[in-house]
Amino acid sequence: MSRHVAVVGVTGAVGQEFLRVLEQRSFPFDQLTLMASSRSAGKKIAFKGREYTVIELTENAFKGIDIALFSAGGSVSKKFAPAAAAAGAVVVDNSSAFRMDPRTPLVVPEVNPQDVRQHQGIIANPNCSTILMVVPVWPLHKFCPIRRLVVSTYQAASGAGYQAMVELEEQTRDLLAGKPVTPRVLPHRLAFNLFSHNSKVGENGYNEEETKMVNETRKMFHDQDILITATCVRVPVLRAHSESINITFSRPVTENQVREILASAPGVRVVDDRAANYFPMPMDATDGDDVLVGRIRQDISQPDGCGIEMFISGDQLRKGAALNAVQIAELL
Known about the structure:
Low-confidence stretches: none
Oligomer: single chain
Number of strands: 15
Number of helices: 8
CATH topology of the largest domain: Dihydrodipicolinate Reductase, domain 2
CATH architecture of the largest domain: 2-Layer Sandwich
Number of domains: 2
Distance between the termini: 13 Å
Largest sheet: 7 strands, mixed
CATH class of the largest domain: Alpha Beta
Strand content: 15-25%
């Protein structure tokens, strides 16, 4: 069967990562179409020994396309993803546009691959921080139901796009040279600083990133009763997010049980060397497919033995975005 794949938003950071992942995983396709806004139309991109010309994204551009990988922002997805689905393509969308739509599956292949079957033309890729959290948390939840998750994130500039990464590099150089810094992409200076995640804060005091982690996890776990709270922070790291995760289980669980489960969990690599004080770091997670998990320990504030602490790092552009989308396409 011939397979025609489209990458929408190909000139962005995630779009470029789509191409890398498609090549590295030898994703089977017979035809590839690269799409972007009118500003990028006509640009040449080399891929797997061929040169492709980027075409303008329009509602009529999806005829004959089987799978469309979208990473062009929520407003673009809302406009063009339904048109792609109507033309017969299955859209894997990396934006937040359809994540909480009850008709749209929200999928992490290590967690809920069966939900792919329910698609009506669009499948949503979760938020990057949610993906990185649920990959190690899900196998633990299957072993012993989790009652509560408390997560604090340390999110890299890559989560705000390529221009935010460039801005962090420029700010760092300017500050070291004694030059003034004026933020353009992010709302505050990121170099040698950190700040609360730059998404809109709701009436309850939680920003959109934190709310996504709560709602998306519940949807994928098919569990509206699990208690989740999050604090999301932008840190001066170029690429790869980290998270501190505190878990309360429904019965006592030991740290050795957690290590044993995670040692064989798909998409997870345990990095937990107490003697060498070596644990997950963004520099080790960058360009990798696995979520690194360490600092696994009993929570001493929960004397009933139901609490576990751990720390994770994962590449936001790969497992947090492009890799997860391509894995969904592989399921299709």
